[in-house]
Amino acid sequence: MKQHLLLNSLNYLDDESRKNSFLVMGWPRDNYLRRRAALIESVANQEKMKLEKVKQDARVEGEGGGANGAAEAPKSDENREPATVAEEVDDTVVPGEDKINDDGSSSGAVDATSNAGTDLLTIADGVTISKDDPRILPLLSAPIDAETLLARLNNRRLYARILHYKREQRKKAGHIHVTDLDGYGSAKEDDYKTVQQALKDQRTADRLYRKNVTIEEMADLEWDELLELANMRLRGGEDPYYPVPTQHELLLFSQCPREVGVLASYPRSGNSLMRTLYEHTTLRVTGSDMQGGLAKHDLVGECAVDANFVQFVKTHFPERQGNPQFRASRVVLLVRNPFDAIESYFNLMMTGKHTDTITPEIREKTVKYWEEYVLKEIKVWKLFHTWWLDQDVPLLLIRYEDLVRWPDKVMGRVLQFVLEIKKMHTFFDERISRWISDQQEIERLGSYKPRSGGIGKSLSKYSPELLSKLKADNELRKVMGYLEYTELLEKSPDQWDTLKPLDDYAHEHSATWEGSTTVRKVVLCNDPGRLVRTKEENTPWQQIKKDLGLLGGDCNCAKCKAERELKKKASGNNVSEEASEKKAAVALSPPENEEDKRNSLNKVTVNAVETQTETDVNDSTVDIKNKKENRGMNQMSPHEPLHVTNKREKKQRELFEFAGKFNLNTLTKAINTEWDENFKASN
Known about the structure:
The protein is globular and about 90 Å long. It is of the alpha/beta class. Strands 6, 7, 8, 9, 10, 11 and 12 form a seven-stranded mixed β-sheet that branches. It has a three-stranded antiparallel β-sheet with strand order 3-4-5. Strands 1-2 form a two-stranded antiparallel sheet. The protein starts with a helix and ends with a helix. Residues 67-109, 177-187, 574-578, 580-645 and 658-662 have low confidence and may be disordered. Helix 7 (271-282) packs across helix 13. Helices cover 49% and strands 7% of the residues. This is Sulfotransferase domain-containing protein. InterPro entries: P-loop_NTPase, Sialate-O-sulfotransferase, Sulfotransferase_dom.
């Protein structure tokens, strides 16, 4: 908490003061400088696009004026005013080398040059901004580790299960009826059932409202109770309490007695679905070697690869390099046919989200990029799977197509392999069956709803010529033969659902050293020298989005236009125009007398002022919310009056401009003093 508050205070400082603070605290600055460089690149691209749009509009106006014989001559260099951010920029944007992140975003390198003797920073040709522009100052905050994410998830699940229990109790209350005793004073059969029901409810409540235990201790107790309950069922006993719904069960970290097992897959091949099934079956958190956007989908093991925390770690290596490096003792290779995987990956990179699909309008615009992208990715897909098949470690090959059709069979093989269980027991079989039955549909098994969930549905996006090229690729046919996808090349897409499963739903490959007591090999993951995606296979996603007008809210598809129109209406930008129209209409209509005329005009003016005031308040609220989310600087209390918050923001902006002149203690004291004065003044 202290570190979080300290870093939050540093957000009020300028760039130079931040660096000096890092030096005093003994903190490394590498990560801060990398993030600042990425922000500079983003701002540079935005400014360039704005200038290009201005120049394009000027050319269009010039062409129109030339046609009418009234085109203005351009200013000479001698008479031109000094260039500003909104003027003169090179028409071409050099994106640099795109670095692909897990959520589809990309970052590159932009050279920023500091102007000696000034507070300006040249981030591109003709583009100069202030060194302390808030847009290029990274937000400082303490990193959220996997333990914190797990604590938050378990708190949410505990709250959800209590609500679920209370709802069930209210339902039962409507069916409870009291029966009379018989003449001898003994309870009837219905009374006995009622008593047993009451005892079961009480035991369930005792499990929900435990006292003097932490949530972590509660999760341990519940796991032990699940094992005891399984043994009781084997002996023919009844459940002494109602089970917790699977989606509300608490998760745990668990140590691995050896190097972790790894879940390796090409992107968009079903690793999130597999991780969710594993977590709900074993109640153990799965790790990941990258910080993506899956924490919001309840996959909280981001950047957790240590064997002291997790047993099973997701990776896309060697397709990309995650962080940090770690060793894996066994591999679950999850594969998906290249046609569906590559098309799904295209959607991810274009939308930046795991669940969104590009619109038909954008799909038409991307036709010229599609074939080049597919030919690049098919090479990466082949090299990725070949690399893993060549590793001399125990490997279990499973397919996405089998996982979505027979999740219980495939999951049983995965648990047996990862946990090194010689024979599956009834306990895990029941866990898998219960989770699948609770979710009912395969689309609900994963952490988020997939785009299609079908097999072969993406083939309509491939032209006949492109499909012919892919089917003629002998290397592709060879790799698909290893993965038993050969029949997909011969069948029509509507028959892909009849794809035969792998023998026993998985293929297990033994290592050459298995059985030896002296030799034991592992795989070093995230070794930068072994990546299969080179610069030639990188797709410049930022450049493509820029060319299509998808950056900076410039997309002109029907969906984006509709969203912009809704936002415009919600913000109330047209209030002044409506008020003017009403005022004009009243002025043009002949009133009965001068008094009625004055009353009508005053009424319209009052309504316009009230509406405009309400709009200003709404705009201020939205602006405050956006600033809080994007910059993290305005920690507004829900109990603070709006006008007080606006004053506080104004003072914070003023302090931010002069933050370099204060040390940390002075700055914090000044902020607190200004806030106290504003709060007292408001009261």
